[in-house]
Write a structure and sequence with these properties.
9 strands; alpha/beta; globular; single chain
């Protein structure tokens, strides 16, 4: 099978296992491309992609832009974070104006959960969800799965713990869907106030004790505390959070086995992980960044319906 079962990338929950494996194998080919002296391929020549970011983003936006340029796509950028665009009609109006410029694909980040799904029903263009509120962030989950596979040889049968602010994290939800579809076991760990009540209904165990969680896992994905999404105080202080749920070198070295450490970024150094952990040999954080470009190239290539 060399094509996806979906027309858009709205969330991991809409993908099947074959879709995920196809994206990851295509990303492997693109990773070879971006490590060549000439990093560009003409795969998306004559395809126009609009990047619509209604929320601030640095890493994801740069990663998508780089992926688009590596594929030779024509790119237009729309940053709505400073404008009065919110949602509903204005979202459709904004997009229709951009579609009038004959855009084939839209990469969108929006504060409202379901914004990408809403848009996919309103406009005739391929939609890629680059994060919708605290709901999903599918390309992050795909690049995380790709990075785990690259490091450990497989995702199937591996034990992954996601640590931190699960409640506000779109990365956590997409990762849970993706890792389970690939046959991994997932646990979450964090303060009770930051663990959503529904999480066990997704087949995920909650482990409140960080050391126990780390002893169990093969991979620890350390999430950023999303202070900008927290409208009330969910824990007493960052210092206290860090003492209970922060990963430092002493804890890492005290484990009975070597585990892999990941982080979707940006890192609050000294809060969820210390610098010596982030920069250690067990960390694959910079690999995740590099793999993000290859994975996003694969997603856009496959959605454009181009044959390899």
């Amino acid at each position: 099978m060399s094509h996806l079962s979906v027309n858009h990338l709205l969330g991991i929950k809409y993908l099947n296992k074959n879709d995920i494996e196809l994206i990851l194998s295509t990303a492997k080919n693109f990773k070879e491309v971006i490590n060549r002296p000439i990093k560009k391929v003409p795969s998306l020549r004559d395809i126009t992609v609009a990047n619509l970011f209604f929320e601030n983003s640095t890493r994801t936006k740069l990663s998508f832009e780089l992926a688009q340029k590596r594929l030779s796509a024509d790119v237009i950028n729309f940053s709505a974070s400073g404008s009065s665009v919110k949602k509903g009609e204005t979202l459709v109006d904004t997009v229709n104006n951009i579609l009038a410029m004959k855009v084939d694909m839209i990469v969108m980040r929006h504060a409202s959960p379901g914004a990408a799904v809403f848009l996919s029903k309103k406009v005739n263009s391929r939609i890629i969800n680059a994060g919708d509120g605290a709901h999903e962030h599918p390309t992050q989950a795909l690049l995380d799965a790709f990075s785990i596979h690259e490091k450990l040889g497989t995702v199937k049968g591996k034990k992954i713990v996601i640590v931190g602010d699960i409640l506000h994290s779109r990365v956590a939800l997409s990762n849970i869907f993706c890792l389970q579809k690939l046959g991994a076991s997932v646990k979450v760990c964090g303060p009770t106030t930051l663990i959503p009540k529904y999480i066990t209904s997704l087949g995920v165990e909650v482990e409140p004790d960080l050391r126990k969680a780390l002893e169990w896992c093969d991979v620890a994905n350390m999430l950023r505390i999303q202070l900008e999404r927290q409208d009330i105080k969910y824990f007493p202080s960052l210092r206290e959070y860090s003492m209970l749920y922060g990963l430092n070198k002493e804890i890492l070295d005290g484990l009975s086995k070597k585990i892999v450490v990941m982080h979707p970024g940006p890192i609050n150094r000294g809060v969820e992980i210390t610098s010596d952990v982030a920069d250690s040999k067990q960390s694959i954080i910079l690999d995740q960044v590099e793999n993000g470009v290859a994975v996003r190239m694969a997603v856009m290539f496959l959605l454009a319906g181009r044959q390899a």
